[in-house]
UniProtKB/TrEMBL annotation:
The lineage of its organism: Eukaryota, Rhodophyta, Bangiophyceae, Cyanidiales, Cyanidiaceae. This is Oxidoreductase htatip2. Gene3D superfamilies: NAD(P)-binding Rossmann-like Domain (3.40.50.720). It comes from Cyanidiococcus yangmingshanensis. The gene is HTATIP2.
Length: 259
C-alpha cells in the first residue's frame, strides 16, 4: 500500500520556530506539491525565507492545551481545534535539559506529552501521514533519560498512528547542524565547533551529524514519495506496518539526493 501524496497537500507543522522547524517550513513552503503550511506557534513570528503566501500561522499560546481536556483549555478560541482537511503533519517539537531548567519532568512534558498531544490532534484534523523528528539512539529501553524519553515517545506515537491507520515516518538525526549565528556571545565557539563537525561528517556519512536542511528535505520526500522506494534507494527501514524509520545516515544521503 502506497502512502505517497498523489496530489497537492496541506500540512500542519509543530515546532516551527526552532532551527529544524524553520527549515522544514521553508522546505515545504517551496515544494510544488504543498499547497499550504499551517505553522503552529506560541506567538506571531515570520518566516522571511519561506514563500509566505503558503504559510499560515496558528497561534497557541499554551501548549498544555494539547494534553488537557477541551473544557480545561486556556486558548479555547484557537483555530487549531476546528481545523479540518489536513493531509499531513510534522512534529519537530523538542527541548533540552538546559532549556527545561534541568527538570526531567519539564523535559518529558515537551518531548513526550506535547508531541503525543500534537499527533493526536493532527490525526483528529484529518492527517493521514505523520513525520516525527526524533533522535539517533532513541529507545524506550535506554539507560539514558533523554534517549529513553525519545524512545517512549516514538512508541506512543506509533501506537496512535496504528490505531487510526495513519502512516508514520520517524526521523532519527544525530547532531543537528544549524545555520551559523551572526550575533551572540557564543557564536564564535559554536560556529567553530560546527565547522569541525561538518568536516568530520563528510567521512562518516551522516552518522555524526546532519544539517537541519537535510532533515527538512527528508521530511518533504517522506511525505511525498513512496516509502518503499525510499527504503530501496536510501536505506529507510520499515519498523512495522505503515511505520518507517530514517536513521541519520539515510537522512544524510537523502538530504544530498544521492542513492
Amino acid at each position: 500500500m502506497s502512502t505517497a501524496v498523489s496530489a497537492s497537500y496541506r500540512v500542519l507543522v509543530a515546532g516551527s520556530t526552532g532551527a529544524c522547524g524553520q527549515a522544514i517550513v521553508q522546505e515545504l513552503a517551496t515544494a510544488p506539491k504543498c499547497r499550504e503550511v499551517l505553522a503552529l506557534c506560541r506567538r506571531n513570528v515570520s518566516f522571511p525565507r519561506s514563500d509566505s503566501s503558503k504559510v499560515r500561522l496558528i497561534v497557541l499560546e499554551d501548549f498544555n492545551d494539547l494534553v488537557v481536556e477541551p473544557e480545561r483549555r486556556r486558548n479555547k478560541e484557537c483555530p487549531l481545534w476546528g481545523l479540518t482537511e489536513v493531509d499531513a503533519a510534522v512534529c519537530a517539537l523538542g527541548t533540552t535539559m538546559k532549556d527545561a531548567g534541568g527538570s526531567q519532568e519539564a523535559f518529558r512534558r515537551v518531548d513526550h506529552d506535547y508531541v503525543c498531544g500534537f499527533v493526536k490532534t493532527a490525526i483528529g484534523c484529518g492527517a493521514r501521514r505523520i513525520a516525527l523528528v526524533s533522535s539517533s539512539g532513541a529507545s524506550a529501553r535506554s539507560a539514558f533519560f533523554y534517549m529513553r524519553v525519545k524512545g517512549e515517545t516514538e512508541d506512543e506515537v506509533q501506537r496512535l498512528c496504528n490505531e487510526h491507520g495513519v502512516a508514520l515516518h520517524v526521523l532519527r538525526p544525530a547532531m543537528l547542524l544549524t545555520p551559523p549565528r551572526t550575533s551572540g556571545s557564543r557564536r564564535l565557539a559554536e560556529n567553530l565547533a560546527q565547522r569541525i563537525v561538518k568536516t568530520l561528517r563528510l567521512s562518516m556519512g551522516g552518522s555524526l551529524a546532519v544539517s537541519v536542511a537535510q532533515v527538512a528535505r527528508t521530511v518533504r520526500v517522506a511525505l511525498e514519495e513512496d516509502p518503499t522506494t525510499m527504503a530501496q534507494a536510501y536505506g529507510a527501514q520499515e519498523r512495522a506496518s505503515q511505520t518507517w524509520v530514517y536513521p541519520s545516515r539515510t537522512i544524510y544521503r537523502l538530504g544530498l539526493g544521492t542513492a
